[in-house]
Amino acid sequence: MVEFCAPTRRSLLLILGAAAGAGACLGAPSSAHAKSSKAAAAYRGAPNGRQSCANCSWFNPPSGCSVVSGPVSARGWCNLWG
Per the structure, how many domains does the chain have? Predict the structure, then answer.
């Protein structure tokens, strides 16, 4: 006969942390990976003053973006610029 001891708070936190980590490793969907469409981001192929895709933190040269789907121009701009 197997005897189980009452779980401690620490062991429960370790189990929950391991489960959360396993979900992240398995590629669980996350809103951080969702990209906006060009229309939803109000993307345009021209800069907004000094703001352009080329100097945005989301831009991935030569034509990628972490938050807008599809190719973007380095000279473009959208309302998610940051």
Answer: 1
The model's pLDDT over 30-79, given as tens digits with 9 standing for 90+, comes to 455 789 999 999 999 999 999 999 999 999 999 999 999 999 999 999 99
Which amino acid is it at 79?
N
Each residue's pLDDT tens digit, 20-35: 655 554 444 445 578 9
Is the pTM here over 0.85, yes or no?
A: no
Domain encompassing residue 77: 35-82
Asked if residue 17 belongs to a domain, the reply is no
CATH code, domain carrying 82: 4.10.490.10
b/e code 45-65 from CB counts within 10 Å (16+ = b):
eebeeeebbeebebbeeeeeb
